[in-house]
Amino acid sequence: KPLRIVCLDDGLAETLLMFGVSPVAIAGRDIWETWVVEPPLPPDIADVGTLLEPNLELLQQLRPDIILSMPYLDGIKPLLERVAPVTTIGLYTEAGQPYRRAVEATRQLARLVGRESEGEALIAATDAYFSEVRQQLTPLSARPIYVVSFMDPRNVRVYGRKSLFQEVFDRIGLSNAWTAETNYWGFSTVGIDGLATSSDARLAYLEPL
Questions:
Q1: 141-205 belongs to which homologous superfamily?
Q2: What 8-state DSSP symbol labels residue 36?
Q3: How many whole angstroms separate alpha carbon 53 and alpha carbon 38?
Q4: How far apart are CA 64 and CA 82, in angstroms?
Q5: Euclidean distance between CA atoms 61 and 144, whole angstroms
Q6: Which residue, 87, 124, 162, 177, could crosslink 146 as a Cys pair with Cβ 3.0–4.6 Å?
Q7: CA-CA distance, 62 to 7, in Å (whole number)?
Q8: What is the pLDDT of residue 153?
Q9: Of 95, 35, 206, which Cα lies nearest the Cα of 13?
Q10: Is the pLDDT reported for residue 209 higher than 80?
């Protein structure tokens, strides 16, 4: 029978849905509907509350076979293990390369749910899409691009080395305007005036504002 999976990371849940597998629950449906959007979340997937304080009583009622988690939730792992076995899958390390790790995570998830062929098809389709987009974006490749998300009207997160955006840029032939140091997740938090160091850069911002 299908595994009853509680997924505490939106990226992992999105990958499962791409395989045609629905988790029984995620954390924070409202966050999904604001930040993830696609693919749409099936209405029968339960919401176990916030990431750092999931509803343990509801988790027990759901009787999951496995809980999928991320390294940043290791602090609550002992609590989760009282409910079901926990599998932790991380994309970010000090060494970076989150896209390579995302490919590894896709294969790991595919093995877990018995959808190996769907996993390989997803990886191949993504690589093909990168090749297609690289050709389409050739006219934009001459000028560097900042990728930012606004924290408030004056401050942004700007993504650079060790970020997933950087690895995608490398694959589609775009140049990142942000070359300064970044944190564990591949971004720096700066004032908007900190982007003025490149006079010819374009700006791409992430919705919602």
A1: Nitrogenase molybdenum iron protein domain (3.40.50.1980)
A2: I
A3: 25
A4: 11
A5: 51
A6: 177
A7: 12
A8: 92
A9: 35
A10: no
Task: Quote the percentage of the chain above a pLDDT of 90.
Answer: 82
Residue pLDDT, tens place only, 10-50: 999 999 999 999 999 999 998 898 888 888 899 999 999 99
Domain extent listing, the chain: 5-98, 141-205
Residue 35 CB partners (closer than 8 Å, separation 6+): 10, 208
Residue 38 has a pLDDT of 87
Number of Cβ within 10 Å of residue 71's Cβ equals 12
Q: By CB neighbour count within 10 A (0-12 exposed, 13-18 middle, 19+ buried), where does 154 fall?
A: exposed
Kindly state the DSSP code that residue 43 receives in the 8-state scheme: T
Q: Any residues with CB less than 8 A from the CB of 138 and at least 6 apart, and which?
A: 173
- Given this chain, do its domains 5-98 and 141-205 carry the same CATH topology? yes
CATH number for the domain whose boundaries are 5-98: 3.40.50.1980
pTM: 0.88
Q: Which two tokens stand for residue 53?
A: 């304080």
Q: pLDDT tens digit string along 110-140? A: 999 999 999 999 999 999 999 999 999 999 9
Comparing CA positions, the residue from 115, 112, 174 lying closest to residue 141 is: 174
Query: 80 near 93, Cβ under 8 Å?
Result: no
* Kind and range of the H or E run holding 69: strand 66-69
